[in-house]
Specification:
The complex is a heterodimer of chains A (312) and B (673). By secondary structure, chain A is an all-alpha fold. In chain A, 70% of the residues lie in helices and 1% in strands. Chain B has a two-stranded antiparallel ribbon with strand order 1-2. A two-stranded antiparallel ribbon of chain B has the order 3-4. Classes of the chains: A mainly alpha (312), B mainly alpha (673).
Chain lengths: 312, 673
């Protein structure tokens, strides 16, 4: 694929996840309601919420400064950029010239950094507590993501995401114990990054990811919420790109494109479905016990690394 | 003019500034100005001189023959020296500017003396990294320690500072002793103190191992690696902030320079366990340094602990480089050193900026306790903005410079892990994990630092009434912020320059590290990164959320300001916000094991502290003895003499005339004979 078509694909990917993100979140809300034996909202409820929020008056606290104001916009921009780098519908990284896997991991740190800072800046108690929780989780989850991806990069011999995806998709890396364990660890990390149980109750305001949101209102809240939906889809697509890239197109063609979009949405839906299953069948854990759970995932990532070592 | 001659001119200028400032101690306003301006101008010339070498100029060694058996005084600036000189001078140019208004804070307490030691300190650092003779190296090294010691104890009225200075002095000299031993072993084997002879020394393996260990731990103490870091978080914050910036920003880098000079340049990296040792100490320093920084509430001590962390990251890169060189993998060697040197440069500027920022805060607030700050971004907007840039860089947020150098460190680990060396294959990914944990901790730590000082409600009357720092101080911080941005976005320009330095050390042929707006770890197949493109896209993509708001009609909704944060319907009070010490509480309970070493180290530390007390008390108890045996008799003798000499002074002019004539007569007689 040539450069210009890759750029277009990158922009298309960003647009695709931007538009699909509220739908996926709506989907998990519906699933949740069904599992609670409730009727639940419509799957399109999130779009209505967002469009209504944008048109509401914004109330800004006394302490809030410009970091608080700019954060929602930065979060969305960073996630859109990540969506352009991660191979979703192709096996190549559309904006691979911007950065590799490590750059993507650090691009996930950018929104987290600003969300936490804005939580502190708002002066709100919930904001501050949410900020420190968010950062603690990041300390525990980032090494898992890094190690799981590092093993895949070692298997592929490169940290360029597109090359890893191409290798996995073309069968250059066989699925064996190291890959399966890495997949398990990363899926777990993605599960936590998405702000799901066992540490988070996504519908309660004073919790992890929503904590720093408690001072937001109106259009800022809409953009920030949208950014967080986007982050969930992007982390899922990173998982799919590295571990399950089948169905993505290798060369540009219209049927290939349509198929790839369809397969991508299907895979993501399946992932959301599994996440919802887990989310709603698990008990909640006290926040300070987070580390006992994440050690398990880090252990899985370590095992994946050990299997990688022993096979060579 | 040869760059090295230019550099000696810089040193001379610094000395002139130092002496002028000392003599003007009585006129403090002028002393401040003179010391700041000469320091700044000298440093700018130094930047130019180092730039000449970095951009491909050649510098001949300058030899000043000496009369002593230790050899001649030789100055030489290779690309490694030039790299360090460049950051020393660039940072000290800015801190000199900053010091002009900042020292007003210390008026009446010997500002001229501070200027004297400050200028000498800069000069000694430049001399340390350019001298090429072990004897003079130690001499200048000692000068650097002494001048910085006097700057650390500048605020002598606080007992804490004097204690910190004592600990610093003790540790620094323990380190110097080890370095001296290493050089003496070189001397025994080569019969010379010249670095050029060290370079060609044919040494047996055990000797090389011994020299490496002595040098690594000797310099390591000065660099502040864990567990020898205990002096650093006490001494660095005690000094005036523009000096803290230099101490943390560049002085500890001279120790890294020493490690690289001895173990890579002289000894050629020896065996691969050297690199692993450096790497391990680096990883431990990085992880523990940042976790101690996280629970700190004194803003300057937080920054000092973060220096321990960053020294760790630099040593991790150095360690990978040493393994690469030792095992004949020049690519790995170059990449590791590139990562280390890039981070070294970056850390100098962002830590310099953060210390200057904390200096501005302390200047206005008169406290270093972050729990008493809050909401300063509203009252000190420029300081806040500049500080935020430093925070983003130190937290390795893309596309800032801290991220770029950590990215290179990750790439070095990746190259090591995909090499054929078993030990690298096993350990490199694990060290990469340690680096990622460190990065996440650093982000948390600096969110706390920025969040509790600059945002939220003001937590003390001083914070409520704080004003923006004086313009000159603001300008110097903004200059550093611009340098940080340039080092990040300008990575495609900066990387090849530092890459050349690294390649010259690993004796690799020139290697490509940048093409167009992209940087890559020697091969584009492994990875590419384009910080400028990333920045452009990040800013450009801000349009999309703005467009969404515009299309959905959000701009008509308006906004309401000036309400209290939501507190479930209760009345909001400032105590409800999360303060510095409550922010780190979950980490303390989750990562309790990281703080064990702190408890372990406390005992020897207390022993050293009590030793200082004991020595003081011995000196104090010795005082009366000396007084009775020496001072008192002397005093009495002087008194007695005075009594009798007084008899000569009768107040009669004729007697005095007689004295004159008598003197003349005696002189005449003496002359004739």
């Amino acid at each position: 694929m040539n450069m210009s078509s890759l750029v277009w694909i990158g922009l298309f990917q960003a647009l695709l996840v931007l538009l699909a993100a509220p739908l996926f979140s709506g989907f998990s809300r519906v699933l949740r309601a069904k599992m609670h034996s409730r009727r639940g909202p419509s799957i399109f409820q999130n779009y209505r919420d967002l469009s209504k929020l944008v048109r509401r008056q914004e109330v800004i606290s006394d302490q809030a400064g410009w970091i608080f104001r700019i954060t929602p916009y930065l979060v969305m921009a960073a996630m859109l950029l990540t969506a352009m780098i991660i191979p979703m519908i192709t096996v190549q990284s559309p904006f691979g010239m911007v950065g590799d896997m490590i750059a993507v991991i650090y691009l996930f740190a950018l929104p987290r950094f600003f969300i936490s800072l804005s939580g502190l800046e708002s002066g709100s108690t919930f904001g501050g507590i949410g900020a420190r929780r968010e950062m603690l989780v990041s300390v525990l989850v980032e090494p898992i993501i890094l190690l799981a991806l590092f093993v895949m990069a070692l298997l592929a011999g490169t940290t360029n995401l597109g090359d890893i995806t191409t290798k996995v998709a073309s069968g250059g890396i066989p699925y064996y114990s190291a890959v399966w364990l890495g997949m398990l660890a990363f899926a777990f990390a993605a599960f936590i990054e998405m702000g799901k149980l066992p540490f988070d109750l996504s519908e309660a305001e004073q919790e992890l990811q929503e904590g720093p949101l408690s001072e937001y209102s109106g259009r800022s809240l809409a953009i920030l919420k949208w950014g967080i939906y986007l982050k969930q889809v992007v982390i899922v697509s990173l998982f799919l790109a590295v571990f399950l890239p089948f169905g993505s197109m290798a060369s540009l063609s219209l049927p290939g494109l349509i198929l790839a979009i369809f397969v991508f949405l299907l895979k993501a839906t399946l992932f959301y479905f599994l996440v919802a299953l887990f989310e709603n069948t698990m008990a909640r854990v006290q926040f300070l016990k987070v580390s006992t759970v994440t050690w398990v995932a880090l252990g899985a990532a370590m095992l994946s690394f050990v299997f990688y070592l022993s096979s060579f | 003019m040869d760059p090295i001659q230019l550099l000696l001119f810089v040193v001379a200028l610094d000395c002139i500034g130092a002496i002028a400032s000392l003599f003007l101690n009585g006129r403090e306003d002028i002393a401040r100005l003179i010391s700041g301006v000469t320091g700044g101008v000298a440093s700018l010339v130094g930047v130019f001189s180092a730039g000449l070498v970095l951009f491909g100029g050649v510098s001949q060694p300058l030899i000043i023959p000496g009369p002593n058996p230790f050899g001649s005084l030789i100055f030489q600036m290779d690309s490694l020296s030039a790299c360090i000189v460049c950051i020393i001078c660039l940072l000290s140019a800015v801190t000199s500017l900053f010091s002009i208004p900042y020292l007003k804070e210390y008026s009446g307490r010997g500002v001229g003396t501070a200027g004297f030691f400050y200028n000498l300190f800069i000069a000694s650092m430049i001399l340390v990294v350019t001298v090429a003779n072990a004897f003079y190296f130690l001499l200048f090294w000692e000068l650097m320690t002494l001048t910085s010691y006097f700057l650390v104890i500048f605020e002598q009225d606080k007992e804490e500072n004097v204690k910190a200075g004592y600990l610093y002095m003790l540790m620094a000299h323990a380190g110097t002793a080890l370095i001296m031993l290493a050089f003496i072993i070189f001397f025994i084997n080569t019969g010379s103190f010249n670095f050029s002879d060290f370079h060609q020394a044919q040494l047996s393996l055990p000797t090389r191992n011994l020299i490496f260990l002595l040098a690594f731990f000797g310099f390591g103490i000065k660099a502040g690696i864990v567990p020898f870091h205990i002096w650093l978080p006490r001494a660095h914050p005690a000094a005036p902030s523009h000096v803290s910036a230099l101490l943390s920003g560049v002085m500890i880098k001279t120790a890294i320079y020493g490690i690289i000079r001895v173990s890579i340049d002289f000894l050629g990296s020896g065996s691969s366990w050297w690199g692993i040792l450096v790497l391990t100490f680096g990883a431990i320093s990085a992880l523990l340094g940042v976790s101690y920084a996280l629970v700190e509430r004194d803003i300057k001590r937080l920054l000092a602990y973060s220096s321990v962390e960053n020294i760790g990251i630099i040593l991790m890169g150095t360690g990978v480089g040493m393994i690469g060189i030792a095992t004949q993998h020049p690519v790995l060697g170059t990449l590791g050193l590139l990562a280390a040197l890039y981070h070294l440069v970056n850390h100098a500027f962002f830590k310099g900026l953060l210390f200057l920022g904390s200096g501005s805060i302390v200047y206005r607030m008169q406290t270093k306790n972050m729990n008493a700050m809050g909401g300063l971004a509203g009252r000190m907007p420029w300081t806040g903005l500049a500080f935020l840039f430093g925070v983003l860089a130190v937290s390795a947020i893309p596309p800032f410079n801290g991220f770029v150098s950590e990215w290179f460190t990750f790439q070095a680990f990746f190259t090591a892990a995909s090499s054929t060396l078993l030990v690298c294959k096993i350990f490199a990914p694990l060290f990469a994990v340690v680096l990622s944990i460190t990065g996440a901790f650093a982000a948390m730590c600096f969110i706390k630092a920025y969040g509790s000082t600059f945002t939220g409600p003001a937590r003390s009357p001083a914070a409520r009434e704080a004003q923006e720092a004086p313009p000159v101080m603001v300008i110097s911080m903004v200059v550093l912020a611009v340098i940080i941005v340039a080092l990040g976005l300008g990575a495609p320009v900066v990387t090849p320059l530092i890459g050349n330095v690294a390649a010259s050390l690993s004796s690799a042929t020139q290697m490509n590290t940048a093409v167009g707006a992209q940087v890559f770890p020697l091969s584009t197949a492994q990875a590419v990164l384009s910080p400028p493109l990333m920045a452009i896209l990040l800013v450009g993509l801000l349009i999309i959320p703005i467009l969404i708001v515009a299309i959905l009609g959000g701009s008509r909704a308006g906004q309401r300001r000036g309400v209290d944060p939501w507190t479930c319907g209760y009345v909001y009070t400032d105590q409800m916000s999360v303060s510095a010490s409550s922010f780190d509480q979950p980490v303390l309970s989750t990562f309790r094991f990281l703080f064990i070493l702190r408890v372990l180290i406390k005992k020897p530390l207390d022993a050293i502290a009590s030793l200082s007390g004991r020595i003081t008390s011995i000196i104090l108890s010795a005082e009366p003895i000396i007084e009775n045996m020496v001072t008192r008799p002397l005093e009495r003798a002087v008194e007695y003499l005075g009594e009798h000499i007084r008899m000569l002074q009768m107040g009669d002019i004729r007697i005095y005339c007689l004295y004159i004539i008598l003197t003349l007569a005696i002189l005449l007689i003496a002359g004739i004979r």
